[in-house]
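Regression test attached.
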Amino acid sequence: MRNIDQHSITAAVVDSFDGCDSPRLKQLMTSLVTHLHDFAREVKLTEAEWAQGIAFLTATGQKCDDKRQEFILLSDVLGLSMLTVAMNNDKPAGCTEATVFGPFFVEGAPHYAHGDDVANGAAGEPCEVRGTVRGLRGEPIADAVIDVWQADAGGHYDVQHAGLDHAQGRGVLRSGPDGGFHFRTIVAEAYPIPTDGPVGVLLEATGRHPWRPAHLHFKIEAAGYEPLITHVFRDGDTWLDSDAVFGVRQSLVAEWAAQADGTHRLDFGFVLNPARR
Amino acid sequence: MRNIDQHSITAAVVDSFDGCDSPRLKQLMTSLVTHLHDFAREVKLTEAEWAQGIAFLTATGQKCDDKRQEFILLSDVLGLSMLTVAMNNDKPAGCTEATVFGPFFVEGAPHYAHGDDVANGAAGEPCEVRGTVRGLRGEPIADAVIDVWQADAGGHYDVQHAGLDHAQGRGVLRSGPDGGFHFRTIVAEAYPIPTDGPVGVLLEATGRHPWRPAHLHFKIEAAGYEPLITHVFRDGDTWLDSDAVFGVRQSLVAEWAAQADGTHRLDFGFVLNPARR
């Protein structure tokens, strides 16, 4: 390793992991370094670009706090989050597909009974959501724990409203004996991801918009089944074909049907995969 | 882009840069995303590993301040810094090779005359350094501006000593009419890079040591020539074959020769590349 040049260096770095006790970590670092170097050689990265990259990553880390995770946002807009979700949640045909978790889930949301209003004061057009939780053979799954969360009409989640001290547009329900559940809330609306940090600068510089199509988040857990983390997207949304975080799957797009009384209604059937041994 | 899966997602992300005004930025992001996704697929990155990666990058950004740049350190230990230097400083045979800049350069170091003691109180064994600055045809380069900097016997640069308010082991000289310069200082010693941050955790987890072989930094600038940023490494050092930042090139290894009076002496000839048009 005394003759480091732009070609020999990759083997030198890979060899430096020879003493790594964890075969998996060694595999991860070997692949990471090989791809990182291949990228730099492929584009012939300049010293100024390298310095800009260091400054960008530093600013991204420094934007993070207990309410903001800019590195997750970066992973989201580069499609790495959705790629990781897709690879790790491959399911048999017929199961509801997974999509990105997003940064706005809150552990310990209030529990609601069927028919309650989960909006809890959030601004928006009223709607009713009716769902079922079933297995692959159509069997109803009772007592599933269902977390739902969503943005309000202004495109913000409750946690984004400074000073709001209670949950809005967020709650936990349980499926009944027939696997069914229902609640009232507001209609989901499209919203931009936060653009006041380095990720916003990247989107602007690359000519990309920050919008996510309207969606309702679900996390469903039931004994004997794999947990499901997904969204239901609203059919007809402008951004369905250019989601800023690449989360859309056609099977997750559904109609919020307009009702005679001016409200909307969403019906959606969730199908869980049996737990893997 | 409604049928995102682990294979289709890369094209979807690449296509999202279609509106980028800068062809170079588009090329950089396309290559970066392609390699990032290929890495994730190649190792089948798990959701827990992804989360660990996000936490690591966040901690790396948050370790940075006005005296510490942990992302440069990360780039150094992954060989990206040296790769970037090597790619951008390809020179004709006979020129002195470049190596990593490192994080310890300080703009505006004190100016010294030939024969002065650059150590300025830093602890270590005394030595004399004699150098020449020449062009490829052997022509002497007069009036070159030569920055030198180095660690002390304890393995620390002056800027790492809290409370020290003046330069030690650091200074600026000018070559004479014959291209020559000389100064007194202390013998360079091996030292570990800082391990009290995420990069230290990474080195430990992968079974790597943090040591850099003993070296003296040089930055040489002269009108009509390319700037040269390099080190001279000390022959016989334990870590020459496993430099933690992959900076060693055999042509930069030299002898600090023991003198009859117990001091050491380094002689080194620097050859600059003509400036490119």
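Expected vs. actual: identical. Chain B has two domains: 1-45, 75-271.
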